[in-house]
Design goal:
- A hairpin with a 4-residue loop joins strand 9 and strand 10.
- The chain has a twelve-stranded mixed sheet with strand order 1-2-3-4-5-12-6-11-10-9-8-7, sandwiched between helices.
- The longest helix is centred in the last third of the chain and has 13 residues.
- Helix 3 crosses helix 4.
- It is an alpha+beta fold.
- Helices cover 29% and strands 33% of the residues.
- The radius of gyration is 21 Å and the shape is elongated.
Length: 288
């Protein structure tokens, strides 16, 4: 039976999330909370569905829709049994003509089959690479005439972001208040590499202490400055910054399947492939 999630389902949902956490190939986009109270609060802004088994012995699978970018994102499905295709189909009935995104591990074939049966199409694959901090951080020596800044005026940030030709264009729509709030977070760092007064590139970091790692969420080098090993230097500076947090042990980066120079950079810098995630989208026209 498929029904809306209730607060009494939190324990079962936590069990499903821990089951997902135990194997990388089960990974999907899912709630971050791993505490019952925090999980209930996190789910309040989502349209959550659960699937009970026929015997009524508890929740076997979970799925939800949440606001995301220009539409919605599918959380899950997370489940160790039940008809995942039926659960996904039921969930997207609430899309109201909006596009729906979904993310899952490349090896999560059961979920991928359920998504594609519900009209989702793969957009791209994102590969993740990681390495211990210490070997990377040892290379963090600034060349002569270069300095490191931890802030950039929003106009300079936007200009460099735009010139880097990345497709994560929602950053360009940030207001000054949103920009300041993001980089004021304790778990976020901005490292701008300067040659004189000119920003040649920057790296953005987010700390994940529970996982023992720092994620490079964005790395940009101005096109006119490429070929001078600034990318490798920014990775090293990011690792050195992460080393200031004693609970962090590794650095992780990501690259979409079309980003061949980034993949080459990460491999040459000594990072190794650790996981792959497929991004799906279901067009809003599917509901018509």
């Amino acid at each position: 039976m498929i029904r809306p999630m209730q607060s009494t389902d939190a324990a079962d949902l936590l069990a499903l999330l821990h089951w997902m956490d135990d194997a990388p190939e089960r990974e999907v986009f899912a709630p971050d909370a791993r505490d019952p109270t925090e999980l209930i609060l996190e789910c309040e802004d989502s349209r959550c569905l659960v699937m009970e088994d026929d015997a009524g012995d508890g929740v076997r699978a979970y799925c939800a829709l949440s606001p995301f970018r220009d539409g919605l994102v599918l959380e899950g499905p997370v489940g160790d049994g039940g008809n995942l295709r039926a659960l996904v189909s039921r969930a997207v009935q609430g899309a109201q003509g909006l596009p729906v995104y979904a993310f899952c591990a490349r090896d999560n074939q059961g979920v991928r089959d359920a998504l594609e049966a519900a009209g989702f199409a793969p957009m791209h694959t994102t590969d993740f690479y990681s390495a211990p901090l210490a070997p990377l951080a040892r290379r963090a020596a600034l060349p002569s005439g270069h300095t490191l800044r931890r802030t950039l005026p929003i106009a300079e940030y936007r200009a460099l972001y735009r010139e880097s030709e990345d497709t994560w264009a929602n950053r360009l729509d940030w207001t000054p208040e949103e920009y300041d709030a993001h980089f004021a977070r304790d778990d976020v760092r901005l490292l701008a590499l300067m040659r004189g007064t000119h920003a040649v590139g920057f790296a953005e970091l987010e700390f994940a202490p529970d996982a023992g790692r720092a994620d490079v969420t964005y790395l940009a080098v101005h096109p006119a400055e490429r070929g001078q090993r600034y990318g490798q230097l920014l990775l090293a500076l990011a690792a050195a910054e992460a080393q200031t947090q004693p609970e962090l042990r590794s650095l992780r980066v990501r690259a979409h399947d079309h980003m061949r120079p980034a993949r080459a950079l990460y491999t040459h810098a000594g990072l190794t492939h650790c996981r792959s995630v497929v991004t799906y989208m279901r067009d809003g026209d599917e509901d018509v």
